[in-house]
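Retro notes
What went well: the complex prediction finally ran end to end.
Inputs used:
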Amino acid sequence: MKITLNNTEETFDKNELTISDLLKLSNFSYKLIIVKVNGKLLRKEAYDNTIVKDGDDVMVLHLVTGG
Amino acid sequence: MTFEEIKSILKNHTVGIAGAGGLGSNCAVALSRVGVGKLIIADFDVVNETNLNRQYFFKHQLGEKKVSALKNNINRINPETEIIIHDLKLNENNLVNIYKDCDIIVEAFDLAEMKQMIIETCMSKLPDKPLIIGSGIAGWGKSNEIRIRQSENLYICGDEMTETSTQNPPLAPRVGIVANMQANTVLEILLNTNHKDEDYAE
């Protein structure tokens, strides 16, 4: 499947992935992240059972301490 | 647009600033200088010696509440800016009431967990309000890695990488870049929107 990940088109072998799988595959290992799927904010508890499908737009933002 | 035209638009707007540390104090000063009409600033902390390497405070203000010290400093720069201050720790319950009448909210917290809290709260309770986050400001150099990303109403300024630590402290230049990038994003939203509205009306 093809998805848009952080504004870049990316291709994955599988046709469906959970957000948790996607984060692991793409090495998003930061402690605090914000995930938006098709513009909607996803809560952390939903990462395991939210499925990413062909054509979805996923945005991953990193939150790091300092201000 | 001339500066007079810019000021005449900005004076009718209110910007909320969540935190009065490195990001918040510098962003607030920039917004006041260009003529934003009203700023709503909240913070619970006092000015500390270690803040002076990046925050818009003076040595004689050590020990003062950050929100009142910042209000005094802004008044000396541009007394026409109306400053509303809240001396408290923001949380998911009080921030909605404090910022609900703002046109835009600037997140200027220190801790990543607080950044997450304001994003989740705003997206569920104030979904139409633009929210400008600062994330990744520590250290020095690498100016080109500081960037801005947008997803609908959420803007994120910083390198999204460098976390502050004793070996990688937050310092005036990089914190200032991100604080001013947040202020610049405020202008982009307020001036471009209003400019478009004007074109549209014609």
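What we learned: The longest helix of chain A spans residues 19-25.
What to try next: split runs per interface for comparison.
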